[in-house]
Structure formats: C-alpha cells, structure tokens
Amino acid sequence: MSLPPFQTLLDRHGGAMHRFLVASVGAAEADDCFQEACIAALRAYPRLDNAGNLRAWLLKIAQRKAIDAHRARARRPVPTGEPPERAVAGGFGPVESNGQPIWARVRALPEKQRMAVFLRSVADLSYADVGRALDCSPDAARRNVHEGLKRLREEMAA
Amino acid sequence: MNGIDRDLTEAAGGLPLGGPSAEALRALAARAAQEGLVDVAYAQVDSPLGPLTVAGTGRGLVRVAYPERRLDDVLADLAGAVSPRVLEAPERLDPIRRELDEYFEGRLRRFSEPIDWSLTRGFFRRVLEATARIGYGEVRTYGEVAARAGSPRAVRAAGNGLGSNPLPVVVPCHRVVRTGGGLGGYTGGIERKEFLLSLERG
Hints:
The complex is a heterodimer. Chain A is mainly alpha-helical.
C-alpha cells in the first residue's frame, strides 16, 4: 500500500493531533508541540513500512511530544511571584483561561493513564488505536483509561 | 453518563475544532522546507484560466494542473512518483507564481524555472522536451514534434503524450496544432488552447 501525500494526513488528522495537544499540554505550548510532532513525522514518513492506521501513528508521535513537554515543565522551577495556589499538581502552571479545569486534573494523572484518557476522550481513538499509540495491548489501553477515570472520580468525590 | 465522563465530553467539545491556526501551519511548512523535509511543495496560483495547482521539487517545477483535476489525485500521483513528503508550501512556489503572472500579462516570453521531468517517461518525455523548445508565439504540427522526438511516424502517440502533459502552459503543448491549421485537442479544453495562442499573438 502506497503512502498518501503528507498534506492529506495533515488535513485529515491535524485537527485531532492539535486538539489532543491543547488538552494535554495547554494552548500555550500546543503549537510548538504540534510543529515538533509534524517535523518528527515528516522525517520518518518515507521509511514508514505500514501505511495502515496513520491516525494512530501520528497521535503516537504527538503523545511523545506531549510527554516531553510535560517532563520539561516539571523540571522547570516555579517562577517567583507566581501565587502558589495557582500551580496544579504535576508541575503544571495555571489553567489557561480558555482551558477547562478538568484537563488540569487529567494532566495530574500518572503518565500512561493521562495519555490513555486524552487519546480516548479528545483524539477519539478506539482502544485498539490507543494501544497502538501507547505501544500496549487494547486491554492494557482500556485498563489505563478506566483506572485514570476511576482516580479522577475519587479525587472529585473527595 | 456519570459525572467524569460528562465533564470530559463537555470539555472535549470546548476544544478548538478548526485545528492548528493558519499561522501555525505556515510556520510548520517554513521549518519543514528549511530542514529539507519537503520533497514536493505545492501551491494554488490564480490565473485567467482558473486556479492552477503548481508543484515543485528540489530539481524544479514538476506539475501544473488545471482546476478540473482533483487536487487529491494530483497530490497522490506526486506522492507515488516522487515522494510522499508532499506539503503545501506557497513560499517555495513564489518564483513560478511571479513568472506565471508575468506570462499571463504578456510580459514574459520564456519561463526560466528548471523543469523536473519525473512524471514523464520514454517517448512521451522526448515529445514534451521537443515541445518545450517551441518558441513563444510559434506553432508546430504534431508530426513535426513526433519527428523531433525521434519517431516521425508516431504522430498519434505524440498527440497522446501532449494530452498527458504534466506541465501545461510552462511546457507549451498549446503550441502544437494539426497540419492544415486545425487546433487539435488540448489537455485543459480547446478554449484554453485558443486563449493561450491568442495571448501569444499579442
């Protein structure tokens, strides 16, 4: 099966990649992560031997960039003068005005659960594709989503 | 639906649906080009003959398509024949855009942009190369072009080759006509051929 033009991929799946990044790293960093993910995808694209499921492949790259951004943020010192109560667990700063508080809660989940929940709820991937994007089985993907949601429920009830 | 699922669905519904901004896409195309990751750049160019799709590679101009050709098909052909790294990158096509503008204003008689012949093969390529040498405002017959391509009797095949010209306007297949003065066919429709010939008559 021959590979479609990269622009076609971008037209079809760029929206899902970008939404996933806005939710998982925040609007302020989403554009940078999107660019990094697309450059990485372009670099690897001609050598891709499996043209099946390109959406899951692109989101796998996007979620790696989201994890990089998340880790980089966690390492960054909290700027002085920033009111501490605005910082969110997991190293994330204030929730953007156009963001939703629920994303901050999801961002505070452990890495695998966090990515599984975002891929399922924002990028709208099937469990099989969440598994492809996270290099795990569909069952493990389902478990990560359910455990993440369970944890969120418990936190909100607390 | 319980609380958290509803919250997630609602929040997902509030995310921007349009995807990355035009500015973000422009920045991506510019960086990809800078890093040598765009093997085929394309753009839409307005012209008196309708919006043209133009595509170029590192070697030169590879495709000019009339609007009747579906963009998806044009891009899929390029992905198969050249490379799947096909990206909309208008800045890369600025030189040919300028030349096309000048040509349609009657101010340019010869395109200086190099040609990438990747979409052509064998006898068809020789026919098109012979056609590329026909001067502005001149015409040749199908037989003359076939002869210059090395097969004087392959008149019909030469016509077919010109009909599949991947670079209309720039490789001037409109300058090839029938013996006896008939216009013959044209890849973009006979009205366009008449338009181009009358433009060049000035």
